[in-house]
Amino acid sequence: MEVWPGNAYPLGATYDGSGTNFALFSEAAQKVELCLFDEDGTETRIAVRESDAYIWHCYLPSVQPGQRYGYRVHGEYNPVEGKRMNPNKLLLDPYAKATTGSIDWDQSLFSYNFGDPESRNDEDSAQHMMLGVVVNPFFDWAGDRPLQVPYSSSLIYEAHVKGLTQLQTAVPEAQRGTYAGVAHPSVIEHLQKIGVTAIELMPVHQFVNDSTLMEKGLSNYWGYNTIGFFAPQNTYSSIGDTGQQVQEFKSMVRTLHEAGIEVILDVVYNHTAEGNHLGPTLSFKGIDNAAYYRLVEDDRRYYMDYTGTGNTLNVRHPHSLQLIMDSLRYWVTEMHVDGFRFDLASALARELHDVDRLSTFFELVQQDPIVSQVKLIAEPWDVGPGGYQVGNFPPQWSEWNGKYRDTVRDFWRGEPSTLGEFASRITGSADLYEHSGRRPVASINFITAHDGFTMTDLVSYNEKHNEANGENNQDGESHNRSWNCGIEGPTDDPEVRGLRARQHRNFLATLLLSQGVPMILHGDELGRTQQGNNNTYAQDSEISWIHWEDADYPLIEFTAAVARLRKEHPTFRRSRFFDGRPARRGEGEPLPDIVWLNSDGAAMQPEDWDQQHARAVGVFLNGHGIREVDSRGRPVTDVNFLIYFSAEHEDVEITLPPEEYSEAWEIVVDTAGEGADAVPRPAGAKQTVASRSLVVLRAYQPPEVAPDHSVAASLAGAPAVPALVADAVTERTAEGVAVPTAQPDEASPAPAPPEGKEGTRGKGAPSGKGGKSTGKNAASNDADGTGA
Q1: Of 247, 414, 665, 776, which is most buried by a Cβ count within 10 Å?
Q2: Residue pair 454/529 in contact by the 8 Å Cβ criterion
């Protein structure tokens, strides 16, 4: 075979339209062989003779896309010194753009014989390894461009490629559980309905299934076990794994972008699937172990483990850092993704021992003209000492706000002394982010995520039920801050079911109306359950997949309505923190941008916050206190809103604030489903907030009615039809939405809800144009959560 010298950059296998350039980094190698494999497994070894600055490279003019390949690296084998090279182990290219096949955990994949870790194993591993694949980089993006949705306008949906689509019957069977399934119209329509602007995909970098899980009949479902940082997971392809997965992934991104949905990847750069000193030799270990991994300084046979998975990537080495940055740039420039969520991001900051938020990795990201411009989200903790770093990441980063999750869970389950912190969390967590020059959007607000209970299980279980994982229920978090509402697990008790449904709506409404960026776990909007399993990392089964046929449709409608309320009102998605300073109202009276209210309608006093058992609070949001301008420099204003949160176990009677806040208020969200049909309430009126419920009121503005310009009206000199007065009549539509009628006279009572229901009620979501009523969408759903 003809072999040319080729180039040292770019690393990996790069097809240029004629042939393929191969480049591999290894400072420790004494000799490198490129191994090409035919479809029948026949191997052809090619000595890579060129080496520049430890980059081994060659160019093969005859190699085309679809070619399978790997490497054999010759060098010293001395585990005590951290050297693990053995040419009998076929190695995956760290820069492979696609992989084919999988590993089978044969003994040949290991550097030792089972049962004797000190021995050396020289069995050839080629027949048991996955292989790299040369890919065709050319793709018709059809003018695709980054959407660049502002954080403040974002609603993130955390999803698993397979779990999202495996049971969606509207998706063709061959596409279920694949990239093509995610891009199917039925999935996209659902995401659009509930207001999603970005889908955050759990790991799609090529990963490996753990042998211990496979022996139990389980698998590494979540995918946090990466072996290829450039290759999309081959099992998520519906059309093949010899490069087709790259084309299918790109098609998915293009289709989602056409629908206005960004793609964020959950990435795992903190460790790899090779595990600790007893793990297999699949790639990095056999190429340059000490360069790619953090080794224990005084005994280099062992690995530093800040991740709980056996090893930690060595971000102190320039070529490991280059690998990460090259990977990130590749996914942005070649795969068109819009951002990244970094798993255990604190591990990337551990240059020495303590977490350093200004470590080299973050400096590289800061100065990179491509990576620095996409969404960067940190999971701000790892398992090492001092690893919990919520609030300590650099200015351009957003973070999963674990303190928001914990506080909101505690508040709604009625824990004492949570009122003050709850107020801080739902207004953007200024205490965590303002000191570093960041804004509320630094807080990625979430109540549930893949790791833990679903929202349905959060209100249905006090204890985890992980027996299916085969670890005697010892795995997973034991302190979940959950409340089963009186009965553990499924029940037919109507009171418990009704309370659970209300709590579910409380969580969703709180999440969507908090300052910051909301993130919904896939299926929470339709009532998905994992039967109390809070650690489904190994459950590639119906336990963790979305059961679309069991969807709670009223809950979907509720989620969509509240998401629409957020989208249409900048009050709920501010780019700046509240400061409490007076703002100007339309008539000129000063009023702060935010006021916390007690049940008497007066501003909260210090002693009100200090009450240990206080579980209810109101907040006034001033639509004239946003203090922002739009993209054209025009001031952003909105109508005023009130929100009352009550985790009390009994109904609370509150007094609406005086006229300076608004002359009247209309209810637009009531998670108890009890008040959203009523006529507007005047300032100072009494209002009942049901136990454990959330109520949103909007400053009432009578809708303008167009004057009658007919000939008859002009001849008669008839005056224009007056605007509706404060006691305007409401009527219910077929969807159960309360809308104003054009009858200014006497009100008629609203019809009763269907028998056996607490009520599918809700005022229309506003238009965002001067607060005029549009008669859209109810923001409530069936109280019993049945969806009937």
Answers
A1: 665
A2: yes
The CA distance from 307 to 315, in Å, is 14
Task: Tell me the per-residue pLDDT of 635-663, one tens digit each, with 9 for 90 and over.
Answer: 999 999 999 999 999 999 999 999 999 99
**Structural contact between residues 654 and 687, judged by C-beta atoms closer than 8 angstroms:** yes
What residue type is assigned to position 443 of the chain? S
What residues contact 548, with CB distance under 8 A and at least 6 apart?
Answer: 167, 168, 169, 170, 526
- Identify the active-site residue in 93, 210, 343, 382: 343
pLDDT tens figures, 348-394: 887 655 666 668 899 999 999 999 999 999 999 887 778 889 988 98
Cis omega before residue 10 (within 30°)? Answer: yes
Selecting among 379, 540, 638, 670, the annotated active-site residue is: 379
Give the closest residue to 772 by CA, choosing from 709, 723, 733.
723
Q: Which residue has the tokens 């609406």?
A: 656
343 annotated active-site = yes
Task: Give which of 256, 253, 228, 226 is closest to 241, Cα–Cα.
Answer: 228
**Per-residue model confidence (pLDDT) at position 764:** 34
Predicted local confidence at residue 584, as pLDDT: 55
Q: Which amino acid is residue 294, in one-letter code?
A: R
Other Cβ atoms closer than 10 A to 710: 10
pLDDT at 753 over 60: no
Q: Is the pLDDT of residue 572 over 80?
A: yes
The Cα 555–Cα 325 span in angstroms is 41
Q: Which SS3 state, helix, strand or coil, does residue 606 take?
A: helix
Residues 6 or more apart whose CB falls under 8 angstroms from that of 618 comprise: 596, 597, 598, 599, 642, 643, 644, 645, 654
End-to-end CA distance of the chain: 68
Spatial separation of the C-alpha atoms in residues 726 and 212, rounded to whole Å? 67
CA dihedral 366, 371, 377, 381 (to 10 degrees): -60
Residue 635: partners with Cβ closer than 8 Å, 6 or more residues away: 626, 628, 629
* Each residue's pLDDT tens digit, 53-68: 999 999 999 999 999 9
Structure-block tokens of residue 263: 């793609």
